[in-house]
């Protein structure tokens, strides 16, 4: 008898047709990476993956955070023998002590002569006969489902052994993005959601030394570090942004400051993406959340992008974004009260409905290319 972890991957991976093998290999690699440092073995029994680990609780905690894993389940592995299966099944039911139950069998191994229904009926009967206490079979909505999987070995588990995992798709399978990561609540959540769909994360942070402190920078580093727990590694590009902001302040109208700044952020993100082979841009914007996130504001900043811009939070309410931030562990860091570059250079009456042509015209007094090139040249890279 062995205690193992059954890894169930997201149903979407099954739908990948000819690409399924590629998805599975990527997922398996990602699982192995997450288990590094633990004493473990991965066993494939007729297309199901099981993990044998000395520290089973730690392994469960790690594997349930791997994108593409839908559920993990601690199972008891026994010989493929009906009497042994019955005994183990009864033991499991004795642990859970439900009032109602049913047995579900999956017989993948056709060498086993009884079919699934026969196994379920036989084991169910045995449990009813030997269980001390009140217990009924209920097919529709039982308190406890006892699962039996018959493969090379037999595996037994109940609904109580199942633990929900993060889901999504294997990290790294769906291209790459450059996430604009500020120290706020939203952008780390946006990055998490992109990574969860299998998109490789790179981050860019615009730093306005000396107007924003080293502590503000450290906060962004801490957020990148938290995101890296879900990914393989995260490149964080720190772009010196003060010169660009000063140029805008000196050359342009005050009420256009925020929106012009956002156009430069977009340009720098694209330039960095181009330089480092990153395919797209992501940000933490949500429509209507603040003055710069109006439809017009988004149109004017997207105008400066030379590749797709993804805004995974676009339809989400702040409260729902905060819930995810708490769940993924970024919230506590995000709410630390260090200023960011946007809160310092805020116009008193920011434009909420900027017009594209007008913005392009305002900007024409600046040497846009030179400003962007210099910022990119002076960009610092930190890897987590
Ligand atoms: P967040 O909570 O992510 O900071 P926010 O609600 O404060 O977002 P804004 O300050 O308008 O909204 O920023 C919108 C988006 O622009 C952010 O989600 C982030 O993607 C990007 N952004 C803003 N400031 C910076 C910065 N200093 N460095 C990198 N990206 C930034
Ligand atoms: Mg912010």
Automatic annotation (TrEMBL):
Any one GO molecular-function label of the UniProt entry: tRNA-uracil-4 sulfurtransferase activity
SMART domains named in the record: THUMP
Keywords assigned: ATP-binding, Cytoplasm, Nucleotide-binding, RNA-binding, Thiamine biosynthesis, Transferase, tRNA-binding
Reactions catalysed: [ThiI sulfur-carrier protein]-S-sulfanyl-L-cysteine + a uridine in tRNA + 2 reduced [2Fe-2S]-[ferredoxin] + ATP + H(+) = [ThiI sulfur-carrier protein]-L-cysteine + a 4-thiouridine in tRNA + 2 oxidized [2Fe-2S]-[ferredoxin] + AMP + diphosphate; [ThiS sulfur-carrier protein]-C-terminal Gly-Gly-AMP + S-sulfanyl-L-cysteinyl-[cysteine desulfurase] + AH2 = [ThiS sulfur-carrier protein]-C-terminal-Gly-aminoethanethioate + L-cysteinyl-[cysteine desulfurase] + A + AMP + 2 H(+)
BP-aspect Gene Ontology terms: thiamine biosynthetic process; thiamine diphosphate biosynthetic process; thiazole biosynthetic process; tRNA 4-thiouridine biosynthesis
Involved pathway(s): Cofactor biosynthesis; thiamine diphosphate biosynthesis
Pfam families reported for this sequence: ThiI (PF02568), ThiI_fer (PF22025), THUMP (PF02926)
Stored InterPro entries: Rossmann-like_a/b/a_fold, ThiI_AANH, ThiI_fer, ThiI_N, THUMP_dom, THUMP_ThiI, tRNA_STrfase, tRNA_sulfurtransferase_ThiI
Summary of the function given for this chain in its UniProt record: Catalyzes the ATP-dependent transfer of a sulfur to tRNA to produce 4-thiouridine in position 8 of tRNAs, which functions as a near-UV photosensor. Also catalyzes the transfer of sulfur to the sulfur carrier protein ThiS, forming ThiS-thiocarboxylate. This is a step in the synthesis of thiazole, in the thiamine biosynthesis pathway. The sulfur is donated as persulfide by IscS.
Protein name, entry field: Probable tRNA sulfurtransferase
Annotated source species: Clostridium lentum
């Amino acid at each position: 008898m062995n205690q193992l972890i059954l890894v169930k991957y997201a149903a979407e991976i099954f739908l990948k047709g000819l690409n399924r093998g590629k998805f599975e290999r990527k997922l398996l690699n990602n699982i192995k990476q997450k288990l590094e440092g633990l004493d473990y073995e991965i066993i494939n029994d007729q297309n199901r993956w099981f993990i044998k680990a000395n520290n089973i609780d730690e392994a469960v905690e790690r594997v349930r955070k791997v994108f593409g894993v839908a559920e993990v389940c601690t199972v008891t592995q026994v010989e493929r023998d009906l009497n042994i299966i019955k005994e183990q099944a009864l033991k499991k039911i004795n642990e859970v002590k439900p009032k109602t139950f049913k047995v579900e069998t999956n017989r993948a191994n056709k060498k086993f002569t009884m079919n699934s229904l026969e196994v379920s009926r036989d084991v169910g009967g045995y449990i009813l006969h030997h269980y001390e206490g009140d217990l009924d079979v209920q097919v529709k909505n039982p308190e406890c489902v006892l699962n039996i999987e018959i493969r090379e070995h037999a595996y037994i588990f109940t609904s109580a052994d199942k633990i929900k995992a993060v889901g999504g798709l294997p990290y790294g399978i769906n291209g790459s993005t450059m996430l604009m990561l500020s120290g706020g609540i939203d952008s780390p959540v946006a990055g998490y959601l992109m990574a969860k769909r299998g998109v490789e994360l790179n981050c860019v942070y615009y730093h306005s030394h000396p107007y924003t402190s080293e502590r503000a920078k450290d906060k962004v580093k801490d957020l990148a570090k938290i995101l890296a727990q879900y990914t393989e590694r995260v490149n964080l590009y720190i772009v010196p942004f003060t010169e660009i902001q000063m140029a805008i302040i000196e050359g342009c109208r005050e009420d256009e400051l925020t929106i012009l700044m956002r156009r430069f952020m977009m340009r720098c993100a694209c330039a960095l993406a181009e330089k480092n082979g990153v395919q797209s841009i992501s940000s933490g914007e949500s429509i209507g959340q603040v003055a710069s996130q109006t439809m017009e504001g988004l149109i004017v900043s997207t105008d400066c992008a030379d590749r797709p811009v993804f805004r995974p939070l676009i339809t989400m309410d702040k409260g729902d974004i905060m819930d995810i931030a708490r769940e993924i562990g970024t919230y506590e860091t995000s709410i630390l009260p260090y200023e960011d570059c946007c809160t310092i250079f805020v116009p008193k009456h920011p434009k909420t409905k900027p017009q594209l042509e007008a913005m392009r015209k305002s900007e024409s007094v600046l040497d846009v290319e030179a400003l962007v090139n210099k910022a990119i040249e002076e960009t610092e890279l930190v890897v987590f």
